[in-house]
Amino acid sequence: MRRILNSTKLNRASALAVAASAMMIIASADGSGAAAEALKPVAIQTEPAIPTISEPVIQPLPQAEVPSDAAVSGAEDAPRAVSLAELVAQQPQPAELSRELNCLAAAVYHEAKGESLAGQLAVGRVIVARSKSGRFPDSYCGVVFQPSQFSFVRGNSLPTGARNARQWKNAVAVAQIAHEGTWRSPVEGALFFHAAYVSPGWRLTRIARVDNHVFYR
After folding, report:
1. What is the CATH number of domain 84-188?
2. CA-to-CA dists, residue 37 to 34, 155, 173, 186, 203, angstroms
3. Is pLDDT of 138 > 80?
């Protein structure tokens, strides 16, 4: 009988031990589940990356300043001047003139050598304008030698007398300016002129008087 009781107690103790072990396993499993939840990886919020483009920085070089009186190319190759006198002084003096330029310079010289440079240029530009008008000969010499046009012309030749060196030099320079059109005449477009001391009674459009000549178109 005592053996049976002991065996019953032993079985009861074993059952209690098994139950305790089972409880511990369950408790351990629950704890492991919470711990695993806590240790899950958490996504880290980061700032979005800003795309950048690597480009060379180009520093523009400073531009050189162009002087306001610098000569320009093309149709304006002639040196700049602030006055007609300065432009006259800048003109080259050819050792020998072409026939056409010589006719133009002779007209400037004999018609206006004692007048201002503006008056000389006005005479020269009339010769140039006539040669381009279609109403007169198409060359300077043709205009100058046209009959009954210029009193200094004798027949088919120009005066051969001595010329004042300074005045002739000015006339040559003015002729070059008139030919190239590098300075505007005060009576631009005029085709006719006469000495101020005469009154021919022309029915033409008067432009202006410059020195000792009156100009018309």
Report:
1. 1.10.10.2520
2. 5, 128, 106, 104, 118
3. yes
